[in-house]
Amino acid sequence: MPIVKLNKTIITPIILLPIWYLIYINLQPATDWLVDIALGLNKGDHLTESLRFFIFEFPKVLMLLVLIIFFVGILRSFFTAERTRKALEGKSTFVGNIMAGTLGIVTPFCSCSAIPLFLGFVESGIPLGVTFSFLIASPMINEVAVVLLYGMFGWKVTAIYISSGLTIAILAGWIIGKLKLEKWVQEWVYATQLGNENPEEETISLLQRINMGYTAVKEIVGKVWLYVALGIVVGAGVHGYVPQEFMASLMGKSAWYSVPLSVLIGIPLYSNAAGIVPIVSVLIEKGASLGTALAFMMSVIALSLPEMIILRKVLKLPLILTFIAVVGCGIMAVGFLFNAIL
Amino acid sequence: MIIEVLGTGCPKCKSLEKAVREVVSQNGIDAGIRKVEDIIEIMKFNVMTTPALVVDGKVVVKGRVPSNDELKQILTNKIYRI
After folding, report:
1. Where are the beta strands (DSSP E) in chain B?
2. ipTM value
3. Cβ-Cβ contacts under 8 Å, A113 against chain B
């Protein structure tokens, strides 16, 4: 019985991978065939082009999500909050910020665990600024956003997103650390005692890791596919009906105020990455500049009202506002930088 | 057996509590189930990811919701997993 199960778990991805690849490289011709020949629609019509956009983009993005989230799930089985905490203990601040930002990307973490994680870090002596680098990087560099950006813009934009997001997390955490804001942490935080229990680390087999990949696909793709579909429907509509360069005057390079404005609008907005990236993609297509669009996207996914409300339990208001201001300024700097150099 | 479900009220915490109650009643396990929502009490178990499952004072699952089958194994055979 165990042997049968082992074979199935390992062989399924090995069989599916080439099938996945064959479908993926034939998506564009298949879409064109379906739209132009099978449905016989007029090339260049608004409706035709919107439809083509959706029929091609939706399966493409979904396939990329399934593939990459599967591997991300396996990768994440190597990281736990406890291991990350252990790695960060006793590190000097700047090195600590860099490590915390990097580990923030790969450590599995959901915002509902923000409070126990914050307490667990701070109580075991990890500096406030280092803890913030982790808390900023984790939502900022989102695996779904990475996949969608890669699918819609290619690897260069994805690399810009990851590296600038990580830089913001490291520097913002470092600045918050330098500002010595411990006085604005709720008093009870430092009075809380951690239990002595040190749960043993579980030894996970390769099989279990692969299963964690499946679970990640089921949980994440199962949750975001609808947002991806909605985002692409909106995107497809704009793609077919809104004139080119429509956004140029509003979000183009010449409008310097577009960066701070986009960030200010983006901070209170709360959307997951799945819905925002397709929209950002059409904003760019219609003339928004990359820096502005990236800044908008980052402020939507990295800073959100629900997370601030959760963090309010452990942080006093001035610290929350400082946190928003520092990260917001970092995002604006990224927006200006890429508007200037690209 | 005393089973404690640690979680501040996130959707996953609720589904873990529900799953535990299901498995316990379906398999006639003799256990008292308690939901721990107070964060200070949760931190006494030194867990950083919720939801977590505690059996007789020992943390056996954290940061995820196991399948009903796995829960049954944990609660009947006492195979402890973190």
Report:
1. 2-6, 32-36, 52-55, 58-62
2. 0.83
3. 10, 48-50, 63
- CA A222 from chain center: how many Å? 16
For residue A269, give the DSSP letter. -
> What letters, b where the CB count within 10 A reaches 16 and e where it falls short, cover A45-77?
eeebbbbbbbbbbbebbbbbbbbbbbebbbbbb
Q: Is A194 on the interface with B (CB under 8 A)?
A: yes
- Tell me the nearest-neighbour CA distance from A315 into chain B, angstroms: 14
Q: How far is Cα A117 from Cα B43, in angstroms, rounded to an integer?
A: 10
The H or E element that residue A147 is part of is: helix A143-153
Beta bridge partners of A60: none
CB A144, CB A68: distance < 8 Å: no
Which B residues in the span 38-57 are in contact with A, Cβ-Cβ below 8 Å? 39-40, 42-50
How many whole angstroms separate alpha carbon A266 and alpha carbon A260? 10
Query: What does the pLDDT profile of chain A (342 residues) look like in tens digits?
Result: 455 556 677 888 888 999 999 999 999 999 999 988 888 888 878 888 888 888 998 999 999 999 999 999 999 989 988 899 999 998 888 999 999 999 999 988 777 788 899 999 998 899 999 999 999 999 999 889 999 999 888 899 999 999 999 999 999 999 999 999 999 999 888 887 777 666 556 677 888 888 889 989 998 899 889 988 988 888 888 877 777 777 777 777 777 888 999 899 888 887 777 888 888 888 888 888 999 999 999 999 998 888 888 899 899 999 999 999 999 999 999 999 999 887
Q: Which residues of B are marked as active site? A: 10, 13
The label of the residue with tokens 């829960």 reads: B71
A144 with A224: CB under 8 angstroms?
A: yes
pTM of the shown model: 0.86
